[in-house]
Structure formats: C-alpha cells, structure tokens
Specification:
- It contains 13 helices and no strands.
- By secondary structure, the protein is mainly alpha-helical.
- It has 3 domains: 111 residues, Alpha-catenin/vinculin-like (Four Helix Bundle (Hemerythrin (Met), subunit A), Up-down Bundle), CATH 1.20.120; 105 residues, Four Helix Bundle (Hemerythrin (Met), subunit A), CATH 1.20.120; 108 residues, Up-down Bundle (Four Helix Bundle (Hemerythrin (Met), subunit A)).
- The radius of gyration is 22 Å and the shape is globular.
- Keywords: Signal.
Length: 436
Amino acid sequence: MKTRVFAAGLCTFLVLVISRPSLGQFGNAYPPPNNPNANAPYNPNYNQFYPPTGAVTPQQLPGLANALATEAQQLLDNLRYELYGTFAGRQLEMRAGAVLNAANQVAQNAQLGIAGQAQIAGAMNQFDVAFTELNSVLRSVGGNSPRSSASVDRLQKVAFQIRNMIGAYGPLPGGPPPLTGVLPIQIPGLPCSIRSLTDATANLRIATNNYASFVQNAFRTLADSAQSLNEQVRYFQGLQSAPVQFVELQQSFQQLRLVASDVNTLLGQINPPPQVIQTWAPVLDSLNRVAALLNIPGQLVLPRPGIGGGVIVNPGFPLPGGDPGPGPAFLGMLNQALAESDGFLQGISANASAVPGGFQFVADARNLRGSLLNLNQQVRVGARRRDLIQTMAVAQNYANSINRRIAAVARGRIGPNIARFQDLANMLNQLQGMLN
C-alpha cells in the first residue's frame, strides 16, 4: 500500500512539474462571439457549443486555443483546491496534467498559423484522449468538486468549438474546409453522420444546461438530479471524440436516458411550476432526437401532473413489480461502479496493444461493463431479486477473469488502471453483499 501511495505521489509530482504552463505566451483568451472587444476575457459562463455565427475563419482559431490552455490550467488549480490529499485527487491531477500539456501544445501550434496547422490535429487527438480519461474519473466525484466540474464543462465547450472549426466532425455548412491533416472522426457502425450526431448532442447539452441552471436558481429540490443528468450528457458528448464503438455509444446513451427517466418521473410526482416543465421539454425533445439517430426505440414523454409515469419503457425489459428493490443505496453504488468501469475500459483500451493479452482484457472489461448496465436497467424496472443476483454473478465472473489476468501480467505492480480496477472490485463486492 505504501509503495502504491508513494508511486502515485511521485508520478503526480513529475507530471505537475513538467506540465506547468507559461500562459503568458498565448495572449488573451477567446472573447465571446460577436463581442467587438477583442481583449475581453473568456466568459466562463458562456453557454456556446458552436463557433460564432456567420463566417468562420481560421483567424479565430488562436483565440479558441488560448482559451483551451487557460481553462486547462484553471481545471488543474481547481482540482488541487477541492480534492487535495485524496486518492481520486491524485489520479485526477495526473490526468489533468496530461490535459494541460496537450492544450498547451494546441495553443502553441495555433500561434504558428499555416505552419502549425498540420500539427493541430495531432495535438487535439492527444487532448481528446487525455480529456476522456480525466472526464471518466471525475464522473464519480463530480458532486464533491463543483469548481472542477464547471471547469470540465467549459473546457469541453471550447474543445467542441475547436473540433468544429478544424473540421473534425466534417466541414461546417458555409465554413472553411478542414485544416491540413484533419480527418473527420469515425465511429464504426454509426447509422448516421457524425456531424448530425454531434449537432444533436450539442443541442442536448444546451437544453440540459438551461434546465440545470433554471432549477438551481428557482427550484433547488431538482438541482441534484439535474447535475447528475448534466454529467451524463457531458460524458456522452466526450465519447464522440474518443476511440469508441457504436455499441458503447448506445450503452452510454441508454444510461443517460435512464437518468433522464428518473428526472421525468420526479417531475410528475412533485408537479413543479409550469416554467420548470417548459424548460424541461426541450431536454426531452433533444433526447428523443439523439435516440432516433442511434436507432434506440422508445421515447420519453412529458409527465402528467401528479403521476410519475410519463415514460415509455424501453422494449425488452419487464414492467415494474415483483420483489422489493434493493434500495437507493444499491443504485447509488451501482452508478459509481459503472463510472469506474467506464474509466477502466478506456484506460486499458488505450494500452491494449502494449500489454500481454491486452485485447482479452478489453473484451472482459466490455463484458463486465455490459453486465453492470444490464443490472442497472433491471433494478430500475423492478426485476426480481433472484434475477439481479444472477446478473451480479455474471459481472463477478468477468471481474474474476480480469483479476486473474492482472495477477499474471502485473506480478504485484500497481499502476493507475490496476488501482482503478481494485476500487471497482471493492464496489462489486459491496453490491453483492447488498443483494444477499
């Protein structure tokens, strides 16, 4: 245990020493669109997911890249303030250091104009890998680090605009052609264009942000569930710039929609003022649009006042009933385990070719994550306890297989991915104890 803590602390120290930026070389951060004051600082509350309206020019790229570097530094500072001394904080600081290094490289390349365009795509790819890894870890502690979560939100908004501008999602209508060396993101098996999916997801982000901001200020009893939904949407949007298979994207969206279904049910039960429902309606419209693009059947519909059943249940699952469920504590732990399994899968996928039996690790991790998703859905629709126990046993079998492979390959060494799996294994044991 001491070796693990010392190694993690040493790695954190090295990353932070290497990653300290010199942001003065980047000039001012990107001003909000249509702001005539070119020296205005980047507005951290600016709710924008697209490049400025009107003609988009490469001259706007350096400003956006500056904002990316500035916000990455702010994220690192916030993590140090909020999570200092915790295991999650150490893990997040290492990942935030990688995000900052990549963001600084994007900013440096953007200052070179045409000479740096060929390197911007590679730097953004490095940023996307680092950001996806960080975002997956932050999901499990986001509620305890509101400043850091807000920084991640702003960082993702700026990154989305940069990808749009350089043509990572395909050229914007009426915009400039992709920069040199930029290839549109590909998601194998995706039944629609990446451009249409990212646009629909951006609209979903805007709608959920608007809803979360409204209830935070006017109806605080709904604030926690709105924050949870916001984190799920942010993670889903981040997957669209990561190496991901279509089936993983579908699973992530199904998880997101289950959270939205809970919000929908809560709204029906408490019958809030009409303004809340009016702000919630665009969220459902956007959710249903994304579901249609992903070929996911069933829709979410607005709840009727006083009734928590305004949802069309996903086909293939039994209706609620049977044994009493395991309770909210079980579901909360299961959500943490799902977030941890997401991060573990992404971590080992990035290094699969460099680890003996790496692709079998990935296969087992995907099966484990799928089992946890099935368990989550069964809990939410009221499946029988014996069915939950069976699904839990399947998840444990995959976890045991991963544990045996780790023992054979690592031989006692512990890195970030192994530490994460140990945390996940502890959560699985707690879940199994709750069911027995």
